[in-house]
Amino acid sequence: MPDVTPTPASSAATPPDTLTTPSTAPSTAPPPPSGDAPQKTTYARLFTLPGARAFTLGNLIARFPQGMFSISAVIMISGTRGSYALAGAVTATGLVANAVVGPWTARLVDRYGQARVAVPATVISACGSLALLLCVHFGAPNWTLFAAYLASAATPNTGGMSRARWAHLLKGDADALHTANSFEQAADELCYMLGPVVAAFLCGSLFPEAGTLVSVVLMVTGVLIFAAQRATEPPPHARTEATKTPLRARGMPPLLIAFLAMGAIFGSLEVVTVAFADAQGHKVWAGGILALQAAGSCAAGLVYGATKPSGAADRRHPLCVAAMSVLMTLPLLAAALTGSLVALGGALLIAGMATAPTMVTGMTLVQQRTPAGQLNEGMTLAVTGLLGGIACGSATGGAAVEHWGPTAAYAVPVTAAATALLLSLYGYARRPGHPLP
């Protein structure tokens, strides 16, 4: 892969209602330090950028409900309808719909600007979640739950939009962008670690619909704050025949398929861990045990972002996936050799430490391989791959538990990790700038 990194926008902050391309305006990135020694990029330095704190705050508020919506819907529907099957089917429908609609929403964001698309898309999504709440509360027929929740597919990829802003602000500063991407990954892990806990607490201590209601309020509030920060918003780009989709970019297809395999790791690991805890008679501990994996990933992501990466991202990616593949054997060994939830929790904590570096490096490759002006769509395609992989991994992990038992079923995430490694190696061979075999 070449060293030149395509960026989603010019360095000039352009109003979203004006379609312009690159400019000669000065970069908004921090000025280089005087002297010969390069200044180390730190998280504190990132937030010295004008507007960075404001859009990050809004994005974190908007992103936090991502870890709340599914568990809130499951608790709300199962608590009032008495059916986990119905609750799972409704949430799965929303997940599949979001995977289908998400890239189209991101394409509109790239073309018309974040604020002009994200705000109405969020309103539509919020209306869908509120409609689901009302249908559940007033005992509407089951089919209305599916119809209402379909509107949640309009939820914009707030994490992708935040990464696009960093790429716009840090144009030409690869080290600073690496730190920013690491921060974003750590934020994702934090949201998915704390979100389900907060949702379960709200639904259990207040009323079944509380988790969904609070999620909607947080999402709308966060997106409004985020969208109001127009100075840091990347300018929109008109589409041409030459830029129909990032899927045509060299090196993108194998990378996105690798994201699919990584999603299968997470989906299968969640189902198998819940089944293992249930078999030990401690199903209530499953959430806390899984949170250890997210905690390990969050901590590793912050450390990874504070260090300067060595070598090109396309070389680091297979190494990170290889580390994930090796560490993913630890939960299998802990379950098979000890049968202890404590040992399993420690294994998941260590295994999670490879997740954030792998995701950060993968997203960096997505940024580099996505054509200019299509970054939101490119990153949303990666998220779509993850969601599809999670769905496939969940189904495969559940089937493995039924046929092999929860201990042996830990072979599923190990197999998914090995598949991701093979795909990442293939992607390295097909990287841009490398002669075709």
UniProtKB/TrEMBL annotation:
Keyword annotations: Membrane, Transmembrane, Transmembrane helix
Biased composition regions of type Low complexity, renumbered to the chain: 1-27
Keyword Zinc: no
Transmembrane segments: 84-105, 117-140, 210-228, 255-277, 283-307, 319-337, 343-366, 378-401, 407-429
Stretches the record annotates as Disordered: 1-40
InterPro entries: MFS, MFS_trans_sf
Keyword Transmembrane helix: yes
Coiled coil spans: none
Listed name of the protein: MFS transporter
Lineage per the UniProt record: Bacteria, Bacillati, Actinomycetota, Actinomycetes, Kitasatosporales
